[in-house]
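Internal QA ticket QA-208
Title: Verify multi-chain structure generation after dependency bump
Assignee: T.L.

Test input:
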Amino acid sequence: MQTTHQHAGGGHEHKAAPTVEEITDFEVLEIAVRELAIEHGLFTAEDHRRFTEWAESIGPAAGSRLVAKAWTDPAFKARLLADGTAACKEIGIDWAEPTGFGTPSDYMNFRVLEDTPTLHHVIVCTLCSCYPRPLLGMSPEWYRSTNYRRRLVRWPREVLAEFGLILPPEVEIRVEDSNQKCRFIVLPVRPSGTENWTEEQLAAIVTRDCMIGVALPRPGRTADVHPVHKARHPVHSSPSMRAAE
Amino acid sequence: MNGVHDMGGMHGFGKVEPEPDEPVFHAPWEGRVLAMNRAMGYLGLWSIDISRFSRETLPPHVYLASSYYRKWTLGLENLCLQFGLVGEDELAAGRALHPAKPVKRTLTPADVPKTLSRGSFERPPPAPAKFKPGDRVRTRNINPPGHTRLPRYARGHAGAIEHIRGCHVFPDAVAAGKGEDPQWLYTVVFDARELWGEFADPALKVSIEAWEPYLEAIP
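Actual output:
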């Protein structure tokens, strides 16, 4: 047994802080820093508002289109695997000069990791939370969580099983630690039962989780729904979280 | 630095808990923190590597107990102090007490689209790449006190070069204030049993991106 002793009970378990926080002292700090910066003319309230709205508006749709196009157009797929950054321009995503997408992060190369029936890729950033935002939008909270960052490089089958993805032992798993300049998405195997589908139909089943590698696309699955495994001994239990339960 | 941010393979922190119907931002302040970081980055005073190092050097108990955007705020607060943009006394008072430090540029709404594009970190190579795909390499057992992107779990291990990923600004040098020192970047793949021992999953491989100074040839 490699993994389960940390869940074995005993009342001494710890989990990282929940990432939904109270708006209390911390919000006061955020406001203080922001207002100081505005007072000092480091940015304006208006540019700040615009950026916030932009960030909230992006999502994984561009990545879904990219995968659907690769599934239906073998020549495009070959170009995509050879040079992801260049191929993205064909669907209107320019990593160097994004138009409505992208952030000034340090990505330089965009690379697509192709799954086969015997090879499954899954992506993590153990050192921070590097993520292909121009294609997938803002990362989900679990992707940034300490538990995901700690565990995926060591126990990927267990982590994937918690997401509801149970891979046969003979399927090789490749964990890509996105710890540097490259940004990645997974190109999953096109599922059977989609033979005559249009690109639009296909894009609908290529969810964000499929492109990170914690889910597989299948007909009828058009949203990322996870089984919820509640921690048995949550360390932090804020009033707002209790109210939500 | 051997900080708590470098957490690949650590034990004892439980399951991943995806949230059902997760919003982009859980509270308005999260979006404001993101925008504030972008706007401040536009001042051009620091790079992505310096801002990462600022978050990594938060006290370990603060790093572990803080959410993603809280770490961003605390890291930004450090940078504002480090670069003299605000004073400790101003943070304590919650208002400006001194004249602003001049900066070379500030973000305006018209410039927001420009901040979405990025400066290139690719640089002309100072020398040909030492390694080629297929070469066997061993990661060096380095433990620098400063910023590095070689995760602890991948130090001192044998792997194979899979790709050459270009020549870029070297984060370890930039974050230490030693200039860009461009280096070749590679994808290196490891067998899980090499990283985690004989009982690791035989059908698992882990790849990282590693800078040339992190690697030595296996003859």
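Spot checks passed. DSSP finds eight helices and five strands in chain B.
Status: verified.
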